[in-house]
Amino acid sequence: MALQAGTVATLDVIREAPFGYFLTDGTDEVLLHHQDMTDDFDAEKPQTVFLFQDHQGRLTATMTIPEIQIGKYGWAEVVEVKEKLGVFVTIGISKDVLVSLDDLPAIHSLWPINGDRLYITLKIGKNGRLFGKLATENVMKEISTSATRTMFNQNIQGHAYRLLKVGTFIMTDEGYIGFIHESQRRQEPRLGQKVEGRVIDVKENGIVYVSLLGRAHEEIDRDAEAILAYMDSRGGKMPFWDKSTPEDIKERFDISKAAFKRALGKLIKEDVIYQEEGWTFRKHQGEK
């Protein structure tokens, strides 16, 4: 069987070269470059190596055996984004691997950025080159763990691995599959982005439903701060009050009318603002 990139092979050392050693399976030869050798290299013994292609497309070897191989999955960190190609990830060897733009979201703003993590395996493309391949939903289910009701209302972190119109699937640090409905986020996470939220439900199948929105008191504080910042940018007043339309409030503050009224109520109770004839005013210190 011919040697193949993305796999592990045990090969004999046949000769030394100025830049490394050549290895063989008896038919094909590959170069083990000095930079890809580990301290336990022994030219007198067969060497177990991982095969990949160098920058010229030539099959080459490394003694660093990555977790991610053809048919084996693992988490890979994004290290470079190329708009016309896709994203490059590191699998722990000297050459980064491309995840093609064909496997990435159609909306470029949802592409991973440097530091994001993707759960992938390796595949050989039509041109014979090695590529990263995103794990399927079935693979993610196979590696996942079922959550229990004890996770309810707990803070949780995870990486987005599947983006849908109705929401986002994540794999949590604990190994749970999580789902974030579009109503439970302020903006859609990128593929591979690490997010932090809280568990708002645990389904019978062990999937956790997650909200990226803060708890009620946290949201009120955040919304109140946004309202005050807007008022301060307008000299301490704004043409919005508790009878403003939901559409106007959503357009200006990107929150619901109910959330807007809760934040206003907090600020009125704290004697920070007052309302008159469709306007809201910020009180000056000492003003009654």
Automatic annotation (TrEMBL):
Residues 73-133 form the Conserved virulence factor B second S1 domain. Residues 141-212 form the Conserved virulence factor B third S1 domain. Coiled coil: none annotated. InterPro entries: CvfB_fam, CvfB_S1_2nd, CvfB_S1_3rd, CvfB_S1_st, CvfB_WH, NA-bd_OB-fold, WH-like_DNA-bd_sf. Residues 225-280 form the Conserved virulence factor B-like winged helix domain. Pfam families: CvfB_1st, CvfB_2nd, S1_2, WHD_CvfB. Residues 6-63 form the Conserved virulence factor B first S1 domain. Belongs to the CvfB family. This is S1 motif domain-containing protein. It comes from Heyndrickxia ginsengihumi.
